[in-house]
Automatic annotation (TrEMBL):
PANTHER family (UniProt xref): EXTERNAL NADH-UBIQUINONE OXIDOREDUCTASE 1, MITOCHONDRIAL-RELATED, NADH DEHYDROGENASE
Membrane protein topology class: Peripheral membrane protein
GO CC terms of this entry: mitochondrial inner membrane; peroxisome
A single MF term (Gene Ontology): calcium ion binding
Positions of the EF-hand domain: 374-409
Family: Belongs to the NADH dehydrogenase family.
Membrane-spanning intervals of the chain: none
Broad class of the protein's primary localization: mitochondrion
Subcellular location: Mitochondrion inner membrane; Peroxisome
Lineage: Eukaryota, Viridiplantae, Streptophyta, Embryophyta, Tracheophyta
Catalysed reactions, semicolon-separated: a ubiquinone + NADH + H(+) = a ubiquinol + NAD(+); a quinone + NADH + H(+) = a quinol + NAD(+)
Protein name as it appears in the record: NADH:ubiquinone reductase (non-electrogenic)
Amino acid sequence: MRWSAFLWEAASGRRPGVSNLLLVVAAASGGLVAYADSGSDAAVEQPQLPPRKKVVVLGTGWGGTTFLRNLDSRLYDVQVISPRNYFAFTPLLPSVTSGTVEPRSIVEPIRRVLEKKGGEIKFWEAECFKIDPQSKKIHCRSNVGTSLEGNGEFLVDYDYLVVAVGARTNTFNTPGVVENCHFLKEVEDAQKIRRSVMDCFERASLPFLNEEERKKNLHFVVVGGGPTGVEFAASLHDFVTEDLSKLYPSIQHLVKISLIEAADHILTMFDKRITNFAEDKFGRDGIDVKTGYKVVKVSKDDITMQNPATGDISVPYGMAVWSTGIGTRPFVVEFMKQIGQANRRVLATDEWLRVRECDGVYAIGDCATINQRKVMEDISEIFRVADKDKSGTLTVKEIQDILDDIYVRYPQVQLYLKSKQMNGIADLVRSAKGDAEKESVELNIEEFKKALSLVDSQVKFLPATAQVASQQGQYLARCFNKMKDAEENPEGPIRIRGEGRHRFRPFRYRHLGQFAPLGGEQTAAQLPGDWISIGHSSQWLWYSVYATKQISWRTRMLVVSDWTRRFIFGRDSSCI
């Protein structure tokens, strides 16, 4: 009779007194073999994996969400803390104010984003109100529940902290702004503006108001001539002329939109051709552009502004939107005081996005700026590293040997060469010391300083945009994913102060272009390579880019359907 193999294993939890029992019975043509092994009562210990480092992410905006989407969550114990449980596609907020796009079309629940990542990523809907870098703990407060003490506060410790909380609107301490103006930073802001616009029209339609009161209610003021302010003014103008004029025909001629900018022009960060076109178009559309005016006070009924030529001017208004730059959140200000950055506007990081003088803390997005190391601060150390033969002088060849590392560590050198139309380091040396055609030409330390004395003029600060925050989040996630490998195989440039190489290459921002929707299905586009496009074709490029940049197919379909609905049925004017 032929027997088949039989395996039976019983664990100690199932059979008291027996930890492991293995019985194998096998039959062959010639006989029977049996083997049994009974272990002791002690359980066999499995090798313990080292505990994962705890990464805490503050914020679910562009920087934080992009970091989470690209991070390998299997390598870390990841915890996310934010007062909002969703990601918002903020470039479309002006479209929400006019009803072109619905609010829920541009938000993606953050738990859905984390679900797609897999792993055990924790999320808590709360806000951080204090960072303690000495003990590596953050103090949080829940908005939806309370602790045993009833205040909803709790502590979270971290090994690595990623601060990606964005920024708030900067009021420049102008009296009355917080009490009387709308901001446009969050989805809730856009919804409030949309309701306020409709309330102004409904109020102006009441029968007991005279014409002056109706004009006041229908005067919409936008303070700030940057991309957000300009796009909101254009979006509001389209809403009024294409939709509300049909619903309120008796008062539509009383509507006035004013755009106030303290500088001499609007859209100063764009090419002058775009600036001039935008100002001319707004003039044709009837939008009153006031440049060179500084708002000094906002009351319930009037806005007071100053101009060197006219002095103080007060104008009545029905609704005002304040869009004049960014300010630091209060708990970040307190954190900056703790780490010696009290005199700065935002958190200062190095080129690897590490908060200076603070171990294990990173900052990305609008709440931080990269403090690029200057060449002249390290000029003596650069000379020492390049002078391999310790001769006290450098040849062109010795400089070229570390030139790639200098370009990576100090990008302003390459930008300076490009701005001066120089072909390479030889041209730069020539500016300091005659003919440098031969590699044997030597420079002492003073001549080397003279050659590089002007390169730091090309140090630039990055703009506070979604594009910058997204690229920083992607870069930082890549660094975290390769952190262990980079310890053994560093890929960064030579350490000018110290030995060896940096673990990673520094962050480099790659500008992909920018848009300025100007209303009337016309958009200005400024793309790399000095490529400027203005008109209807750029509007369709804007549609395609913003649809592509949505972080999920759900929001992508919702946004496209909203645009299609607007083309067919117009914008919704209900006060919901």
